[in-house]
Amino acid sequence: MRGLGLWLAVALLGSAQATAVLEGRTLRFEDGPTLVWQRSFPAALGDLSGPVEAGGLTYLGVGPAVYAFTPAGEVAGRADLPGQVTSLDAGSGSLRVSTQEAGYVERFTLTRQDGGLGVAERVVPPPDPAVTGWLAAAADLVPQKEVARASAADLTNPFLALREARLASAQGDLYASLSAVRRALNTTLPFPAWVMLAARLDAAGFPSAADLALEHARRDAAERGFDPELPVGRAALSAYGNPSAYAGTLLNQNRLTRAEAWMRYLRELHPRFEGGPALYERYAAVLATQGRAGEAEEWRQFARSLRGGTLYNLGLEGTRALRDAARLSALSLLLALLAALLTLTARAWRAQGEDTREYGGRFVAWGRRPLSRARRLTVAYASAGERLTLVLLSAALFTALGGWQWSNLVSSGLQAPALNTGTSGGGWVNAQLARLNLRPGPDTSLLSGLNAQLDGDLSVAREHYTRALPSPCALNNLGVIAQARGDEPQAREQYRAALAARPDLSAAAFNLGLSPSTPELTFQRTYRPDQPRLCYPDQRSLTRAMTGDLSATLMRNLREPLSLVTAAPGNSVRLGWALLGALALVAGLAFTLLLPRAASEARLGRPPAYRLLALLLPGAALLGGAWGSVLLLTWAASLAALLPLSGLVRFPELLDLSQPGVRLGLLGALGLSYLLNTLAFVTAEIRFARQARREAQPHT
User: Is Membrane among this UniProt entry's keywords (predicted)?
Assistant: First the structure.
């Protein structure tokens, strides 16, 4: 009542002369020589912008927020913005606000709404804790003895109300505590702040209020265009209130009932968050220990269902398995190649020494007669079939190393922050995407169109989608644009075309009134029931936009070999040198196919060292036939897969050698390769002995 009386007095006495003045970090409202009210803002809250007076209110930018004050000094509303406010302008008849964050600028129009301020444009909270956690930090700056006064002065900050509730609860005033909690929930917040508030409510012993705050978070995120189909990185989720960490804390405390509420929130809004599979498995294991095996299996099945749309359906973190598979393949091929070259060297050693003796020996000959020495390379003593096998092995090694490089590039690309915020569009996402070297093509056009559509620029979105055709996803989103224009027949025609081109496209099926069952559509039916479903790029589409497929990476390596040893995100320089070495090896071995064989099979014979290596390295002495390569690769792959037992290498996402069945299978394959090789070796020795005996017999 006192504030209302002061406001009426100011109005009756002629508030036209009253002005707001910012002195340092203190906002003063003066009516001539009379100070009506003042408010100071700590430096920790960020820069101040303004003040600007419009519509009977005084607006002041404080950090990433704009406050509206009445002539009596009361907070009439607050607008939460996605960056530090840099300017306020009311000259055009509307209040325009500029914000800046990480090198980009956004502009918004503030509107008056019931209960506070609103923003006409779409506001996407950036994954920046300084922005998303600003309101909670502002409440934490208030000394405890001033909490009640600060909460009464700013009814829009629920974190102050919660602090007041906890103080009242500690004093035994349950009514005042519940009243403050009710006031905290009766505010308007961006969803990250709701999640932070829910965690504090939970910790303070208000579980029902925490559940309501989480529900507010879901609804606000849905209104802002966040969708469960899009992944969320660890950094972004941390900025959004870190619900996964709090769920883990609840599991550590064995508070399973509360953990269930937070796991349900993650499942509904952010199911594809980084680290999700591990947390889902941990929660399922806890449920199983509680005798809830059915629920545990249901959570495991849900985690498996998220693999759709990922690379080779390996899951959200499947690039790690791809990397380990490429590393294992490269190591296996390297072992096979080394074994083959070592065995062929042992067979050619004596003949090569005899042939290079006249030039000073096998090493000196490189200086005296390099061309003649080049014709007597170890590989030149191999048969045409053996040389071809070496070329194929080296080419396969180059491909495997390229696959390793590709998996690194894909992993780095898919972890780009712009692709892991749970939504598309917004100033922060657009600024980050502009820094990525996206490949021109339908997938990049689809992503650009989605960003424009979510930001409300339908004409630009339509242009991008047209360039993305005949993408079924683009067709569906063009149908959404047509439906927004009121052209229902065209929209349904495009939905049908999208579904015909891709029968598993759930967005088009949903828009046609069918009932596909996916986690994303459950969220859509609950929180956006009257809106058509957008189609979002999956991991495969994003991979094509970021790096292309493996063939594109290999072709780029061949066209631009120097780029392999250039430091770049996801590009290992050491791996690049290995790729260059493999490429040179392929070229060198391919050149040897043109050389005549330096010695006959009879002259080479079967020296003792060659026989020993032929026995120890399965398949290395049988490269002239197809089965020799199979035997060599089986031996090399089995040995490479068992190497983690030595501690030298690891393939954590591919092989678990702690499982007895895995070890037994690999040892069995290794033993079988030695058994078959021994039989082949004995057969070859018998055949060689018979041949030598026939040649030793006198001719009649």
Answer: yes
